[in-house]
Known about the structure:
Elements: H1 2-25, H2 32-50, H3 53-56, H4 59-75, H5 88-96, H6 99-111, H7 118-145
Helix pairs in contact: 1-2, 2-6, 2-7, 6-7
Amino acid sequence: MLGYVLPLLPIALLQIIFCLCTAVFLGLSLNISVLLMVGVLIVISLLYIGIGFGTIFTDKQVGGIFAIFVNISTFFSGTWFKPDMIGGTFQSITQFLPFVHAVNAARAVLSGDYSDVFMPLTIVLCYSVFVFILATLLFKQKMRGQ
């Protein structure tokens, strides 16, 4: 797993820096919150890295599955609209999944509401640990089958 995770962390960091530089170009002001958000986004990226598509699926399956996953995770993250606008079952699903908590942690740190970062980030960390354990078990099972 480390051989899978370690090369992806610098890529995630570069992607975060590129996106933040673009945001600065579009009007985001640089301050301590932006620097702290880099740390929060690295933690969030561990969740996505831990999902470990490359360790579970073949390289031909990864592209399509990844595209579907990104669309689903973005839909359930509250990035485009707040889940309470729809409410009901949809809101319950979003609260169960880690994606809305990841967005809430990033929004809280960026706005300087540091006390609101802890709980959503803890949820994301717990999901990340669970995903890493599951990915490790699936990887071991895949290696025994080959």
